[in-house]
């Protein structure tokens, strides 16, 4: 039992862990985004691929062992609610790698198909 890496303050098992195990679908685009961030933290490549839209999904996903994801800030959401079919989530993810610390500032696009939220793509702010 531990705090969820997505920073919700909830226990991992009751937060992103419930989505990773398939016990619950993500109710919102933000919830899916948080669970995908946590998927990177716990290196659950299968979950990341399963929540990626088939149109944009890579064949395989190689997670970089040198990158440690440290913290997530959700900056803004646009739509992506339980009654929407699409949504945007802007976030800043902090990481550390051997060369130093960095941030990924991205606005991700999500769609909901057959009741499931899927990651489509994202625009990275340089
Ligand atoms: Zn979480």
Domain module tally = 1
CATH architecture level-2 label? Roll
Number of strands: 4
Poorly predicted runs: none
Assigned CATH class: Alpha Beta
C-alpha end-to-end distance: 36 Å
> What small molecules are bound in this structure?
zinc ion
* Overall radius of gyration: 14 Å
Q: Looking at the structure, what is the overall shape?
A: globular
Domain YchJ-like middle NTF2-like: 28-122
InterPro entries: NTF2-like_dom_sf, SEC_C_motif, YchJ-like, YchJ-like_M
Pfam families: SEC-C, YchJ_M-like
Protein name: UPF0225 protein Cch01nite_20500
Fold and architecture overview:
This protein has 126 residues and is α+β, with helices and mostly antiparallel strands. The chain has one domain: Nuclear Transport Factor 2, Chain: A (Roll), CATH 3.10.450.50. The chain has three helices and four strands; from the N terminus they run αααββββ. The protein has helices spanning 16-20, 29-41, 45-50; strands at residues 68-79, 86-97, 100-113, 116-124. Strands 1-2-3-4 form a four-stranded antiparallel sheet, with helices on one face. The radius of gyration is 14 Å and the shape is globular. The model has no long low-confidence stretch (mean pLDDT 96).
Which characteristics define this entry?
126 residues, alpha+beta, Nuclear Transport Factor 2, Chain: A, 37% strand, globular, UPF0225 protein Cch01nite_20500, YchJ-like, SEC_C_motif, NTF2-like_dom_sf
């Amino acid at each position: 039992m531990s705090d969820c890496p997505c920073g919700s303050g909830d226990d991992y098992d009751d937060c992103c862990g419930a989505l990773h195990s398939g016990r619950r679908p993500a109710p919102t685009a933000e919830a899916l985004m948080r669970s995908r961030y946590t998927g990177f933290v716990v290196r659950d490549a299968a979950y990341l691929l399963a929540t990626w839209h088939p149109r944009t999904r890579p064949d395989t996903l190689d997670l970089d062992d040198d990158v440690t994801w440290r913290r997530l800030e959700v900056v803004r959401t646009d739509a992506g609610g339980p009654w929407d079919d699409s949504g945007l989530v802007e976030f800043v993810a902090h990481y550390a790698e051997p060369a130093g610390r960095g941030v990924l500032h991205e606005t991700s696009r999500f769609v909901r198909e057959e009741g499931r939220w899927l990651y489509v793509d994202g625009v990275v702010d340089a």
